[in-house]
Sequence to fold (266 residues):
Amino acid sequence: MDAGRPLFIPVLLGTSRQGRMSLPVAKLMVAELSGRAGIETELIDVARMPLPIDDAGEAIKDPTFSAQMNRADALVVVSPEYNHGYSGLLKHALDSCLKEYIHKAVGIVGVSAGPFGGTRGIQDLLPVLRELGLVTIFWDVNFSTVQSVFDESGALRDHAYLPRIDKFLKELIWMARTLRHGREHVALE
Amino acid sequence: MAAETKPMICPSCGVEMNRHAEKLVWPTAPADRALVDPLLGGILEELHTCPACGTGGSRRGHGKARPRPSRSHKREP
Fold:
């Protein structure tokens, strides 16, 4: 099934906060994706997206982000938990597209300074992703007390995360392949 | 609900695209309101993908204006 065409699975970093600890998480996810055969990826940083704040939704669609989402077969969302929710800028960015997402897979990587690994933000994000037409997988990755997971240079200290990321990505890639086949070959009755 | 039957052709490679989804979207501009399907309460967007190259495309499912419903319909604020 389309073995010749690589899957494109970008990583969306969902915060612009200064000193954000989600950045090493997003870079780790890009590295783990890059090492897999047949996968292309890149980091999409909401802090670098030219999104105005005097309007919202598809009216502020950024052509670059739209093209990346059109090309994508799946998406990894790195979502830090702020005050028990996901970041406002992440929602602002996600809302700028719609048809680009339909029948594509998404997996969420939660990040928190506390012990729960962004789970509350993830739970809030799930219905939003569903309404956008994305298909969520049942694996998450949860980075708890993230400040202790990476060293000062951004290198991973706790290698127990790697097998969890492997399970997460295997499920995401399976879903991405399956949904690509569906988009391209299975007609809506 | 009769969907648009004319196939969508891939702008990249000329192959007939696969219609794989219909998504109900909400009118946000005044001009969109005339396209609202009175039974579904929103605008039906068809999603198509090329089986040869993976290019995606979309179009409004019915391709023509429908009368606005007399009852109120669900809208995003």
